[in-house]
Specification:
The protein is mainly α and 77 residues long. The chain has a domain at 43-77. It is built from two helices and no strands. It has helices at residues 3-38, 45-76. The chain is elongated and about 55 Å long.
């Protein structure tokens, strides 16, 4: 594998690692919210705002990963 190929491969692996981290964060937040509601509680407005802000950050990350995957797909076509 050439140095350029290794760099591209590393970039792909990093994108996958980032995607997995995002998925894990989303699943954790969903689980925590479901458990809170099941206990009869309701998250505070501050907690909900924090969750919404984190979701916006995650959506941005996912969008950047998607763009990179689409770019790589164009390269290998």
């Amino acid at each position: 594998m050439t140095a350029d190929e290794q760099a591209e491969f590393r970039k792909i692996l990093l994108a996958h690692a980032q995607t997995l981290a995002v998925c894990e964060a989303c699943a954790t937040t969903t689980r925590d919210l479901a458990l809170e509601v099941r206990r009869g509680g309701a998250p505070s407005p501050e907690a909900l705002q924090e969750t919404a802000a984190e979701a916006e950050r995650v959506l941005g990350d996912v969008g950047r990963v998607r763009e990179e995957v689409e770019r790589l797909l164009r390269v290998v076509r």
